[in-house]
Amino acid sequence: MLPRPHPRPPGGSGFALVADRDVQRSTKPLLEAVSRHLEAQALTCGPMTVLLSALQHSRYFGARTAARYRRLASSASLVAVLGEGMAVHPTERVRGALLEAGDPLLEEWVVAVVNPHVTAALVAREVHGPGGRADDAPEGTGRGQGGRSAGPDAERVFEYVITYERELVLEVAARLLTRVTHGPDGDPRSMASAVVGPVTDTTVAADTGGPDYRRAFTEAPVGMALVAPEGTVVRANRELELLLGRPAERLVGHDLPELARSDDAAALRATCRSAARAGRTALEVRFTRPDGSVVPTTVALAPLGGAADEEAHLVLHVEDAGPRKALEAELSHRALHDPLTGLANRTLFRDRLAHALARARRAGDDTSVLFLDLDGFKAVNDEHGHHVGDAVLVQTAHRLQENLRPGDTAARWGGDEFTVLCEGVGAPAGAAVAARLVAALAQPLRVEGHVLVPGCSVGLASASELDDPLGEDELLRRADAAMYASKSARRP
């Protein structure tokens, strides 16, 4: 059965498609690491893979990136890169697309991988405004057109979403493909019809009895099942047996939704019933193995064509989502936590502070911020080495956490500076917290045979002191100023 023509969606923002998902914030280095991970996924999937990237500007398609993309293009069916000033062929075997002025992709960073087994997309946009690099860049760093920072900059901040939802990834990929206007034969429709059409076709060939089909089904590297509309398993391959921890005789003839967790079973059953009419769809399902362990999966369903008077069976593609979810959790944690101490970083602290101030305003409560700076920390680094200094920072972080309430947030602000957020706490109670932390940090630290007593200076500010109860920047500035005043007063 030939794939049905698939209309290309109009060009537009990739981020608009994912803006309702769980949006995170990150600096540029983390996004580069995620992009390389997605590229590596593309490299392992062979000639049926499409890799599409929007890199804002051709200057970001440097020599190293070009070398990686040439290697990817040697095995993939299509590798395309988009950007301002991008050439039609920016490097060997790689397609290019020029983004014109006003194109929303000029403000975005998108990497999409599409093949029959894996779909993944990173969609990001640079943050503008308070807390964003584009508007707060120091003088001399330079900015590109449209407010984008000029050149690679580790301090650039992005909002981003990583998604493995097949239909959503296909929509993102299609928006990029509309900019890659010409295929290899010069036909402006060939690229979208050759890539988007077959990948997003909602039907499967009806001939299920041929040897090629049976072999592809049996030897597929992911879980596959043929399922009746009500959810009964008609056929299952070896990978699905291994994934669900059940031999074929405990799958075939049994109700697949019954193997899912109770809160996922109803959704899977309803999707099976509607897929014959709605076409291809996908959802996340947690299955329970016989030993009681739970395996998260992504289940893609497509109707299998049959006679007009027959109710269509379904082909299910069941992929282990555990590694992907672990990676997402790790990347999210890295984006929001200090890698040395494990405390919240500035991004997470500011987010929690903004929410705390909003809650305090609604409830008529107060909120306090403490700004701490270790005394004599430079001398520790100079006399004993940075590895000892790092150990002091880690022990300081532990003591902060041990002396705070469960709902309070401690963050490493940078260097030897820390911040603490105390919700529902005014200036008097905040002063008591500050005194407790000063006493805790005044206790000797033992590091590699050295006994160190760095001590600290603390500044306190409360939201009730502000004219604007939502002024997080002013609250931080006052706490910082109070800390420096305390440090100056203690100097001889």
Automatic annotation (TrEMBL):
Residues 126-152 are annotated as: Disordered. This is Diguanylate cyclase. PANTHER family: BIOFILM ARCHITECTURE MAINTENANCE PROTEIN MBAA, DIGUANYLATE CYCLASE DGCP. Residues 126-136 have a biased composition (Basic and acidic residues). Residues 213-279 form the PAS domain. Residues 365-492 form the GGDEF domain. It comes from Pseudokineococcus marinus. Residues 281-333 form the PAC domain. InterPro entries: Biofilm_reg_signaling (IPR052155), DICT_dom (IPR019278), GGDEF_dom (IPR000160), Nucleotide_cyclase (IPR029787), PAS (IPR000014), PAS-assoc_C (IPR000700), PAS-like_dom_sf (IPR035965), PAS_4 (IPR013656).
